[in-house]
Each structure stands twice: as structure tokens, then as C-alpha cells.
Amino acid sequence: MSTEQNLKNVQSVGKNTSKFPGDITNTIQYCEKVKSIAVVYLTQYQSIPYKRSSELIYDMFGIKSSQGTIVNFNKGCPDALRPIENNIKNSITNDAGAIYFDETGIYIDKKRQWLHVTLNYKYTYYKAH
User: Fold this and answer.
1) N or C: which end of the chain has fewer CB within 10 A?
2) Following DSSP, what letter does each residue of 101-122 receive, concatenated?
3) pLDDT (tens digit per residue) in 100-121
4) Nearest to 2, CA basis, from 39, 26, 31, 34
5) Secondary structure of 6-28 in the HEC alphabet?
6) Which of 40, 25, 26, 122 is nearest to 78 (CA)?
């Protein structure tokens, strides 16, 4: 975890400014480790509610975050994980190829959908539709 500070010194003879790194876009910025722990591990893998996840982030890192912040972290996950998803799909279709396929019916929001599973020795890919 790191802290970035933007310093500005305005004097009568001139002005000195510095810029934040390009990936710093908001007044409060959370590092990727905090985001990944809050989103992937706590709320998705462990199924811990947002409020408890927020409390745990504070207990672990001393960082206050709202439930809304954790919701926003979740919203950003699909785009952040897209390169990993593409890597898995490419591995299954381009390397040794898939060695197993299956599909099963599941319910998502009370609607019947199909969950397709494709895997090889290294990866498993799930796709619902």
C-alpha cells in the first residue's frame, strides 16, 4: 500500500506544482490489493456482506470505506477481469484444447438459463446464458 501526495507551492514569485500518477483519478484512491481483497475475496469468495467487508477493511488496513465503495469495486470487476477471461478462453481453444464439456440448467434471478463448462488441465471456463 502506498500514499501519493500532490504538493503545490504558490509564492509571489512563481508557482510549483506536481502531478499525480496517471492511474490516480479521484481524491481518495484505493490500491488494487484493497480492491481485490474487498471484492474478490470477501464479497465474492467468502460471501461476506458489504457492511462486514467494509468493517474488515478498516480493521485490517485502517481504511474507511462505505458499502457503496465496495459495490463500485464490484461493478469494475468484469472489465478488470476481461484479460484473464480471454487468456483462459484462448488456452482452452488454442493450446492442448478443451478436454471436457458440460452444460446444466440453473436459475439466475428466477429465470432458467444454461451453464456451459469447458475445461482443460489448467483452466475451467463457465458461461451462463
Assistant:
1) C
2) EEEEEEEETTEEEEEEEEE-SS
3) 889 999 999 999 999 999 888 8
4) 31
5) CCEEEECCEEEECCCCCCCCCCC
6) 40
